[in-house]
Specification:
single chain, Dna Ligase, domain 1, 359 residues, six-stranded antiparallel sheet, globular
Length: 359
């Protein structure tokens, strides 16, 4: 079995967990990383690496299809929101036509989660609670929101990783926005369409993985954690929690979006128990590791779903109340023109075994 993880970047743990899933299932296979950066940490952890142009380049699509034709993978996963946009606009269909399982939302559903204004409108029409969202360019709507709510959130409309996120009281936001309305250049004013305002609905923030088969279908699993800390727009520490409060929400999201594989969902659970959806990332998210170390095994489920065998019945079980915290790590690798330092045979064998099982 061949698995491609594209835009893998620094997520060495995910490469290793897919390698472990193959090994533990007794499946002969490789995990191959695609990334435009040959020095990406995952290039060292993967069984193979292929350079690919950045997805913003005109050459990206042809280069990707050439790699797919060469490697003929069974499963293709992307970890980048903007690459997923490119895939949703027809490229994922070309991969599927080549027999590659590609868990990517269709174009309309992807746009509904990539554009936070559209997401708010789509979810509200579906009866899913989500904060009211208005564009900064809509002056009347912004002032109405500031008059109605004591605290607000400002962030990028198309953002990823909490880009542009600001938290204001209504008075602070009023001063902030009025200064920009008065002093903006024409070019800056055009950018007001790219900034959204939302009420801060309060409550505790949770992360969910809502999981279906990689080709789509009913919800197969829900993995939940309460966020304890954030760093650079990604959860840095979290505690696993029961998924019961989110079962109805997961079903409604799947009915609305047609999930394939898994989506990462940010939720605020208010004091009255209402879950408000803040963000939907249609990929492995930065919160999944916290449930994996607590016992869940989504890579195993992906293998089973791709190849058509029954997954272990406990693949979505995890310890409740288990706290995880991310930490710094480093991995080393040789450059292509460098001769590795010879190692004794016994040492080489031990390294090979360790890499195979993801130690």
């Amino acid at each position: 079995m061949r698995i491609i993880i594209s835009s893998a970047g620094r997520r060495v743990y995910l490469v290793q967990w897919f390698q472990e899933a193959l090994y533990e299932a007794g499946i002969d296979g490789d995990v191959i990383v695609l990334d435009f950066d040959p020095n990406a940490a995952t290039a060292a952890a993967a069984d193979d690496y292929r350079p690919v142009p950045a997805f913003t380049c005109p050459e990206y699509a042809d280069a990707l299809l050439d790699i797919i034709d060469e490697l003929q993978p069974d499963l293709f996963i992307s970890l980048n929101d903007h690459e997923l946009t490119a895939l949703s606009e027809g490229l994922a269909g070309q991969l599927r036509a080549r027999g590659v399982v590609t868990p990517v939302l269709d174009q309309a559903s992807h746009r509904a989660v990539a554009d936070k204004l559209v997401m708010s409108q789509v979810l509200q029409r579906a009866g899913i609670s989500t904060p009211t969202t208005v564009l900064m360019s809509d002056v009347m709507a912004v002032h109405q929101l500031l008059n109605k709510h004591s605290h607000v959130i400002v962030k990028d409309r198309w953002g990823s990783g909490s880009s542009g996120l600001r938290r204001f009281t209504a008075d602070q936001a009023c001063r902030w926005v009025e200064e920009r309305y008065l002093n903006a250049t024409d070019a800056e004013a055009l950018g007001f369409d790219e900034i959204i305002f939302q009420p801060d609905v309060g409550g505790e923030e949770y992360g969910l993985d809502v999981i279906t088969a990689v080709r789509g279908g009913p919800v197969e699993g829900i993995l939940a954690r309460r966020k304890l800390g954030m760093r650079h727009g990604e959860t840095s520490s979290a505690m696993t929690v029961p998924n019961a409060p989110f079962i109805g929400l997961a079903a409604a999201l799947n009915a609305t979006l047609g999930i394939r594989g898994s989506v990462d969902v940010d939720v605020l659970l208010t004091a009255d128990g209402t879950p408000y959806v803040l963000d939907v990332n249609p990929r492995f998210g930065g919160g999944y590791p916290f449930v994996h170390v607590a016992g869940a095994d989504l890579p195993h489920f992906y293998l089973a779903s791709t190849l058509g065998f029954a997954p272990r019945p406990d693949w979505d079980n995890y310890r409740i109340g288990y706290i995880g915290a991310k930490h710094e790590g480093i991995i080393g690798f040789d450059t292509p023109d460098q001769t590795p330092i010879p190692q004794p045979a016994e040492h080489r064998s031990r390294i090979t075994i360790q890499k195979r099982v993801g130690i």
